[in-house]
Amino acid sequence: MDHHQLGPNAQTGGDVKLAAALLVVDMQEDFCPPNGSLAVAEGRDVVPLINALLALPSFALKIATKDWHPANHISFAANHAGKRPFVDTCTVVNPYNALESYETRLWPVHCVQHTPGAALLPELDEARLDRVIEKGIDARVEMYSAFYDPLRSPRVSDSGLAAMLKAAGITHVYVVGLAGDYCVRSTAADAHAEGFVTYVIDEATRAVDTQAWSRCKAEIEASGVRVVSRGSPEVKQLFREV
Ligand code: VGL
Ligand code: ZN
Prior knowledge:
With 242 residues, the protein is α/β, with parallel strands linked by helices.
């Protein structure tokens, strides 16, 4: 099968229910201007396209994620004496295996559970969502991906998303939302690793590091995920424009 086709039944015509899922990542106040503590430039601007995608019959499952941190979360620079957000890093150690660790970037306090900054954008068409998944709940680990944290031996957090998609017979995953270079990227990489044909829709995401986004997209594509534009056949098919 051509990897670029929409689904296994795409050649049989538009009446076939496609096994595609839409993942709307972290469309929350803290990631957006004007008030977000970790505002991504133009973060709000992706909402109209995401709402248009949510209104389509093309997705068997539409799932949003929320970054949902406790106040003592490891990724907040404020929780590490003398460390600066965006600039400094800290070491995440697997709480069950001291031999597994990695360096992670520190952030301003953001998306603290139940605070206004953690709320989904009111203009996002939440009524179209089948589920909202909360992630980053374990204070001890960073979790960019909607699937699980990057620790592997053993894994610390699993949102259950992979099992949910597989139970629904999903084969293709479209990832949109914020931020392109962090949670969208990690979510798409894990979706690909779980065996889903995975797309990131370029116009439906924005990056923290805007000047590095072209290079980041190349890295995302090198991992096996396809970054597609609004005008690509893969996206036009969703809108039945092909
Ligand atoms: C994110 C930084 C910290 C994201 C979450 O949603 O991309 N970025 N936490
Ligand atoms: Zn976070």
